[in-house]
């Protein structure tokens, strides 16, 4: 990778007109994340961390400022172009799993591969990923047949399907009990190391954040601290 | 867009999601099927009927070539007929007329349609069926007649009894059950009778100038004859004859069939459109429920086009499945049709699976489904992937530019839908391009206006309910609130059921208003008894007889009628004039009359009425002058009974009041028509309770005069109109059915929300009865509102139609029909809503609450 910076956020703000008043969610955020870094974004509820994650994924556009993903300015990209960038560069893990209920575990994992129009048979990789998350025997099961922890593990496998350089995780253990949360976190970190992705994880849990190389803290839409953790 | 995704994953996701929503989609399939079924049924039947007309042409005509005229052939014309038979063709003549028949001893006669044939030859093809079984020669002996069952019932006669006709008694030898050429014969205005021509000649029914229809049937030799040549010769010899041959279907029948098929196809298209509205609603609701999935897919890199392809596949699959099911319905409609029309067309065309009709139905189903689901499909582009994050905050309203852009897309979709529907309507209903464009455009605009008006009223109504709801309590309040809950598509349901009710009720109201107008609103003094076929020698006697009868309110007015044909106008041949539509009647022999002076109730618009002493003058009715582009001073040449004469237009007049003879368009001076065969007809105003007595008195002395009681004619008109209305209402009921299915689909679409509601209500102590009442209030209110809307619009439409096309008809509000429509809609809506809410009441609370 010639460009050492995976993600760059430059004076980004985000405001929403709710109809009755203007809500300022982010009030001017700037930072850079290098390739391979594991960054935790923390903050209380309403601090803007999920919004920031959404902007990083190009799921929304900032009101002002610029965002670069792996050197590409995604700030004003059209919807379809942004979708292509997401498909190629970003893996996503949601708090509430967000599996497609009418697809099996294997098919859910395979979905990004199919959406990106990649040739070849992706099934091998999908099954490999499911094995890595310990669900190779549940490949043909539907989400409704899986527990919460198992669904999140499938979501993890899906996130790594296309080998994205950047992985974004929004409270990945937020809906899980402690034991399952532990399993998922371990898998996330292990997969991250194996695949050498840049991992940005939103969390309000300090224990989870302790695993990160760096912790960015938001409060009321502002970046209040950016700490590197000792290796 | 990747090939891999389009063909594989999209189909898989589309199929899995459809399977998971099969209950909701079932109703959608049915909604499309109803419209496709009506369309394929109508067109399939029309196709079978046409096939039958073609394959049975000879039988239906009972000959190879037929020429129908209303005059007796002159010597030159007879010579031509003899010439055709000299070449080996067989000829038989059929006389058809109306007259009076009675049972001896019972002075009150009945108006009958009489057909006189040559038993030795008739029919050339097909079979006449009598009861008891006998040959035509046996049944139609010189002293015999056969009659339809209903005539014998009215006269109180049996087979073997005696019937009086044209002053002579005949034995009833049998009941005529089937005649092969009944459809191609003259119009029936009374029960049917048949006799031999020899028997007819024994009566005094046919006199010079009589307007009986003469039909000449030819059977051409198998070898050495030319149908086209024979036909052309007959057309040249009898210019105003209706000449047909077995190679083409009867023009009057096929014209009627074409018009009926076009009209009923459009009615079916309305049903299909309603079904397509249902598909659009269901898809919209489905997409709302799949917002998360769509957002997630966009997060994972799916483009809008890829996601649209999933739901487009679902839409097309629903449309196609609905089409296939609809074809099965269509078979049922096609089989049912002959039963609906059997009173007037005693034929059962062989069932024929018409692939063209099937294709049309399928194509129409798919196209209309696709058009209506365009807006929800295109809305996928507007679903933001960050929806999964920002659900709780609510979405941004968007800038005015964004909203304008979305509005433009919606308008473009709306325009595309209208154009598409217009093209579809034009394709189904118009045979020529200009007709197709005109019909399609009118249909699309009419539909758009109806939906817009219905939608507007529905919106107002629901807003009104929203304001009213807080003023109510308990189940009523809950039920009303359900109508404007998120996801409840009450407006769309109101529009779809409303259209169906509006359509069906409009047909009924127009029919009822017209017949009521004819029956009740005859202006004072208008004749209600008409006498036809009064000859010159009878004139004075009839006048004295009628005027002396008790109950006759106004003296009888006799109008002379001479049969003549216009040959030239200003030296130009009438046959070469560009006469369109009803104006083509001037190509035929017309009834012209004379008057000593300008008749009462007429107003001269141009020129000056001619004096009685003038010769060769004619006053022309306003409509005729317009069609023929006539002005005072212009010259018209005529021919009648072998004589030609010339007239000059003296005046153009307008009929200001209704009188006997009011339909006479050409009124000459008394001298010009002297010597020509003349028949008189008369009208009299008789008290209703004295009509039978007057009929009996006239028939007793003048048995050859036909006496038409308006009340009897109205009965016949009523029967024919009823029959037509039954067919139209049968097809338009499909529109109501479509609307009802949409209601059921809408309820099914909100099933999970309803289940949660039931569970929460139960948790807080509501009984099943209480919950059932809440839902029933919702469904009944929907039905009442839809029925009210539809009835209001039907009333408005009927008023407009009557004013536009039937200016004499007065419109009255039919409260009973409106009430039945409203209540009926409520009952049907309630039934449909509960059909779609099956098993909701039985849900156990904990199972549902635990899912959270």
Structural overview:
The complex is a heterodimer of chains A (231) and B (852). Chain A is an alpha/beta fold and 231 residues long. Chain A is 32% helix and 29% strand. Chain A has helices spanning 49-56, 79-89, 105-115, 123-132, 148-160, 178-195, 206-209; strands spanning 5-17, 22-34, 38-42, 64-69, 72-73, 90-93, 166-170, 198-202, 214-219, 222-228. A 6-stranded mixed beta sheet of chain A has the order 6-7-8-3-9-10. Chain B is an alpha+beta fold. Chain B contains 25 helices and 21 strands. Chain B has a 6-stranded mixed barrel with strand order 2-3-8-5-7-6. Chain B has a 6-stranded mixed barrel with strand order 12-14-19-16-18-17. The longest helix of chain B is centred in the C-terminal third of the chain and has 40 residues, at 710-749. The radius of gyration of chain B is 34 Å and the shape is elongated. The model of chain B is unreliable at 391-395 (pLDDT under 50). Classes of the chains: A alpha/beta (231), B alpha+beta (852). At the A-B interface, helix 1, helix 2 and helix 3 of A face helix 1, helix 10, helix 11 and helix 13 of B.
């Amino acid at each position: 990778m010639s460009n050492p910076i995976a993600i760059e956020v430059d004076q980004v703000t985000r405001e929403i007109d709710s109809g009755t008043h203007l809500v300022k969610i982010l009030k001017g955020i700037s930072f850079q994340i290098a390739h391979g870094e594991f960054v935790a974004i923390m903050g209380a509820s309403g601090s803007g961390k999920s919004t920031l994650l959404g902007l990083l994924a190009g799921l929304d556009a900032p009101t002002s400022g610029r965002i670069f993903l792996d050197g590409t300015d995604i700030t004003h990209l059209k919807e379809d172009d942004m979708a292509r960038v997401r498909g190629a560069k970003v893996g996503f893990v949601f708090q509430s799993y967000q599996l497609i209920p009418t697809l099996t575990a294997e098919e859910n994992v395979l979905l990004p591969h199919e959406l990106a129009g990649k040739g070849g048979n992706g099934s091998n990789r999908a099954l490999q990923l499911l094995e890595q998350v310990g669900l190779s025997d549940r490949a043909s099961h539907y989400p409704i047949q899986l527990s919460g922890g198992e669904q999140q593990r499938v979501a993890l496998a899906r996130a790594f399907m296309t080998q994205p350089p950047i992985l974004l995780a929004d409270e990945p253990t937020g809906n899980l009990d402690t034991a399952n949360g532990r399993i998922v976190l371990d898998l996330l970190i292990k997969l991250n190391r194996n695949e050498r992705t840049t991992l940005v994880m939103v969390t309000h849990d300090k224990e989870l954040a302790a695993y990160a190389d760096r912790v960015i803290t938001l409060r009321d839409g502002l970046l209040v601290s950016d700490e590197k953790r000792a290796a | 867009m990747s090939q891999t995704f389009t063909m594989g994953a999209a189909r898989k996701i589309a199929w899995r999601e459809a399977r998971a929503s099969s209950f909701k989609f079932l109703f959608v399939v049915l909604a499309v099927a109803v419209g496709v079924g009506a369309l394929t049924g109508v067109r399939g039947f029309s196709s079978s009927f046409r096939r039958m007309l073609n394959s049975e042409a000879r039988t239906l005509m009972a000959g190879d070539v037929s020429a129908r005229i209303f005059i007796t052939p002159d010597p030159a014309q007879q010579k031509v007929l003899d010439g055709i038979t000299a070449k080996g063709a067989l000829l038989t003549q059929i006389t058809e007329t109306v007259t009076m028949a009675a049972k001896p001893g019972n002075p009150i006669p009945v108006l009958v349609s009489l057909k006189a044939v040559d038993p030795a030859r008739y029919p050339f093809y097909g079979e006449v069926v009598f009861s008891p079984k006998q040959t035509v020669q046996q049944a139609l002996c010189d002293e015999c007649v056969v009659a339809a069952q209903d005539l014998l019932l009215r006269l109180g006669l049996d087979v073997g009894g005696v019937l009086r006709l044209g002053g002579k008694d005949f034995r009833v030898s049998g009941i005529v059950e089937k005649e092969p050429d009944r459809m191609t014969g003259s119009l029936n205005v009374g029960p049917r009778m048949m006799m031999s021509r020899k028997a007819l000649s024994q009566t005094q029914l046919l006199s010079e100038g009589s307007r009986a229809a003469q039909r000449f049937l030819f059977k051409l030799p198998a070898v050495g004859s030319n149908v086209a040549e024979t036909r052309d010769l007959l057309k040249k010899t009898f210019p105003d004859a209706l000449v047909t041959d077995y190679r083409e279907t009867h023009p009057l029948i096929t014209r009627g069939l074409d018009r009926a098929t076009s009209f009923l196809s459009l009615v079916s298209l309305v049903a299909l459109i309603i079904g397509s509205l249902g598909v659009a609603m269901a898809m919209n609701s489905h997409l709302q429920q799949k917002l998360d999935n769509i957002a997630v897919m966009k997060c994972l890199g799916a483009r809008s086009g890829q996601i649209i392809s999933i739901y487009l596949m679902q839409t097309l699959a629903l449309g196609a499945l609905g089409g296939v099911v609809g074809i099965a319905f269509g078979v049922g409609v096609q089989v049912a049709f002959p039963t609906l029309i059997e009173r007037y067309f005693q034929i059962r065309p062989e069932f024929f699976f018409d692939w063209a009709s099937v294709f049309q139905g399928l194509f129409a189903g798919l196209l209309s489904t696709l058009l209506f689901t365009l807006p929800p499909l295109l809305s996928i582009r507007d679903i933001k992937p960050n929806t999964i994050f920002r659900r709780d905050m609510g979405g941004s309203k968007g800038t005015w530019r964004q909203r304008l852009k979305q509005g433009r897309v919606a308008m473009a979709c709306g325009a595309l839908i209208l154009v598409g529907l217009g093209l579809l309507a034009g394709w189904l209903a118009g045979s020529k391009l200009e007709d197709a464009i005109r019909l399609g455009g009118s249909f699309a605009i009419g539909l758009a206006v109806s939906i817009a008006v219905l939608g507007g009223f529905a919106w107002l109504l629901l807003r009104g309910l929203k304001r009213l709801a807080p003023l109510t309590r308990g189940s009523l309040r809950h039920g009303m609130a359900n109508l404007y809950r998120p996801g409840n598509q009450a407006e769309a349901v109101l529009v779809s059921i409303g259209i169906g009710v509006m359509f069906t009720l409009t047909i009924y109201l127009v029919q009822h208003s017209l017949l009521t107008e004819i029956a009740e609103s005859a202006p004072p003094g208008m004749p209600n008894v008409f006498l036809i076929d009064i000859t010159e020698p009878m004139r004075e006697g009839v006048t004295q007889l009628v005027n002396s009868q008790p109950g006759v309110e106004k003296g009888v007015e006799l109008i002379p009628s001479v049969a003549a044909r216009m040959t030239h106008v200003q030296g130009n041949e009438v046959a070469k004039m560009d006469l369109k539509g009803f104006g083509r009647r001037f190509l035929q022999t017309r009834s012209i009359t004379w008057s000593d002076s300008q008749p009462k109730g007429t107003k001269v618009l141009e020129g000056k009425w001619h004096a009685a002493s003038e010769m060769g003058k004619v006053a022309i009715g306003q409509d005729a002058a317009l069609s023929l582009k006539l002005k005072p001073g212009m010259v018209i040449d005529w021919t009648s009974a072998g004589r030609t004469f010339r007239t000059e237009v003296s005046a153009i007049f307008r009929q200001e009041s209704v009188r006997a003879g009011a339909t006479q368009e050409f009124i000459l001076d008394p001298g010009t028509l002297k010597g020509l065969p003349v028949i008189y007809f008369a009208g009299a105003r008789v008290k209703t309770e004295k009509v039978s007595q007057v009929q009996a008195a006239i028939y007793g002395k003048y048995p050859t005069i036909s006496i038409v009681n308006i009340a009897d004619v109205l009965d016949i008109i009523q029967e024919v109109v009823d029959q037509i209305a039954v067919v139209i209402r049968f097809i338009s009921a499909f529109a109501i059915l479509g609307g009802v299915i949409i209601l059921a689909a809408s309820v099914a679409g909100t099933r999970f929300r309803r289940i949660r509601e039931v569970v929460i209500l139960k948790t807080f102590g509501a009984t099943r009865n209480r919950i059932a009442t809440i839902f029933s209030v919702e469904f009944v209110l929907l039905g009442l509102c839809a029925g009210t809307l539809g009835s209001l619009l039907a009333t408005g439409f009927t008023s407009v139609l009557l004013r536009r096309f039937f200016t004499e008809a007065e419109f009255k509000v039919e409260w009973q029909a409106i009430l039945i429509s409203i209540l009926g809609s409520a009952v049907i809506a309630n039934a449909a809503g509960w059909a779609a809410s099956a098993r909701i009441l039985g849900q156990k609370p904990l199972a549902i609450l635990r899912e959270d």
